Each structure stands twice: as structure tokens, then as C-alpha cells.
Amino acid sequence: MVGFKRIHEMIEYEKEKIYINKGDRKMNTLGRRIAELRRGKNITQDEMAEKLNVTAQAVSKWENDLSCPDIMLLPKIAEMLSVTVDELLSDAPKKNIEFVPEEKRKSIDDLMFRIYVNSKDGDKVKVNLPMPLVKMGLEMGVKMPAVSGNEALKGVDFAQLITLVDQGLIGKLVEIESADGDIVEIVVE
Amino acid sequence: MHIRIKSNDNKNINLLLPTSLVLSDLTAVIAAKAINKKAETKECQISSKDLCRLMAEMRKIKKKYGRFELVDIQSADGDIVKIVL
């Protein structure tokens, strides 16, 4: 997590970019990232506004780069869009998978295993599992479809995923689109 | 532990359960018996010993993270199910 001062600097930078953007709409701004991530999660502006206790117009203004969200809302927005505040504020393209060198690597027990299921019908399932719980479940032979209720996870080799995480890979490790149109994502962070 | 069920016809269920009671070994034994009785396949069965180990791990998680959202389900109809440790 970046420091408070750094967040302020980033927001000021975003405001500058909004100003610059009046002439160049192609630049990747905070608003564009919020809009892209929101659409990717199948969340409407109204839903987002309701969860953040703001108006839908405010969300629309953020996405059109007419204003910036309040600093206190950034962690909530980041959580809702399943990214970190750093990723939300950074205009570098988001890496789906990241290799973390051994010296910078967190202990595997401090990592979080997140399963997102977005069904074609509009149902959304989010399961957050700390890594020790996943490891223990695997040791016991607990099958993941029993946890998530989604058949698309049947073909996923979770033991192999844990090995990858052990070797330093984090991020969106799995993205499956089933024949029914359900999208399943597994993110380790 | 907080279990929140909100249906689109405004029927809400809010269950606030003492975490120490839910995650106790006694609950694990009772839950394992109930799961194995109702489980349709062998894959879904779990021994009480394994469930006790899981409960112990959950207690550690609760201690480490405090309020921790385990499951968040939102149906297209507007039903919401949330389980917060």
C-alpha cells in the first residue's frame, strides 16, 4: 500500500492528466480505468454508486474524467474492482500474472486466494480464502466445486496452482469461460 | 460470525453468531455428523477430525484478519448472501 502523501501526489497527477486529456482522449486515466474495471466486473454505475454511498452521476463524472473520487473512497473502489489502490492509480497496464522475486516475496501464508464467479445470468459469487485454509483443504481432499458450486472449476489443478504461487507467481492465475458463458477467475494476491 | 441473507422481496435474515461458539471443536463434531448425513456424494463428506483442524485454522484467520468476508453472493434477482467471519 502506498503512503498517504504518495496517494495525494498520484491524485494530483490524475487531475493534471484530466486537464491534458481535454485535447487527447486516448490517455489512460483514473476514470477510464474505473470504467473498464467496473464493466469487467459487470457492475453498473448505479450499483457502484449505491455501494459507495454516492450518486450515479458522481460515478459517471469520475469515469468521464470530469472529477476524481474522494481519497477516502479509493480503498473501497479498489476492493470493489478487485485491484489494489496502487493499481487503480497507476497508469501502467495491469499485469495479470506477476512474478515476485524471492527477496520481495510474501510468505505464502499471508496470501489470499480469491475466486470470482460471474454467471451469464448475472449472478456473482466471490469467495475469499486465506492460503493456509486452501492448503489445508487440499490436504484433506476437499474438492473446490463443493466450495464454489461451479463446475468450471472441476478441471483446475489447485495443487499445481499452489506450487506456482510457492514459486512466486501471483495475480490472476486462472480465467475460465465455460460453455454456458460463466466466467471464473482465480486471483492470488 | 455474521451471516446476512437479503432477498429481493425484502425478507432479510441477519444472524450474528458468537465466533468462538461456531468455530469450536464441539460444533465441528456436530457439523461433520450433519454434513456426512446429508452429503449426497463421498466427495462432500468430511471427518470430524478434519473439520476440527479447519475450525482451528479459521480461528487463526479470525485472530489475524479480524472482520473477514469469506463469501459474498449476489444473484441477478437481487438476493444477497454474505458470510463474514
Short description:
The complex is a heterodimer of chains A (189) and B (85). Chain A has 189 residues and is α+β, with helices and mostly antiparallel strands.
Features:
heterodimer, A: 189 residues, alpha+beta, five-stranded antiparallel beta sheet, 5 strands, globular, B: 85 residues, 3 helices, 4 strands, 42% helix
What form of chain B results from the Cα inertia axes?
Answer: globular
Mean pLDDT over the residues of chain B:
86
Rg result of chain A = 18 Å
- The tally of strands of chain B reads 4
Q: Give the fraction of residues assigned to helices of chain A.
A: 40-55%
Which consecutive residue ranges of chain A, at least 5 long each, have pLDDT under 50?
Answer: 19-26
Largest sheet of chain B: 4 strands, antiparallel
Radius of gyration of chain B: 15 Å
Mean pLDDT of chain A: 77
In terms of DSSP E residues, the strand content of chain A is 15-25%
How would you describe the oligomerization state of the chains in this entry? heterodimer
- Report how far apart the termini of chain A are: 13 Å
Amount of helix of chain B: 40-55%
Which structural class is indicated by helix and strand composition of chain A?
alpha+beta
Classification by helices and strands of chain B:
alpha+beta
Main β sheet profile of chain A: 5 strands, antiparallel
Shape of chain A: globular
Side-by-side strand order of the widest sheet of chain B: 2-1-4-3
Adjacency order of strands in the biggest sheet of chain A: 1-4-5-2-3
Taken in chain order, the helices and strands of chain B follow as: EEHHHEE
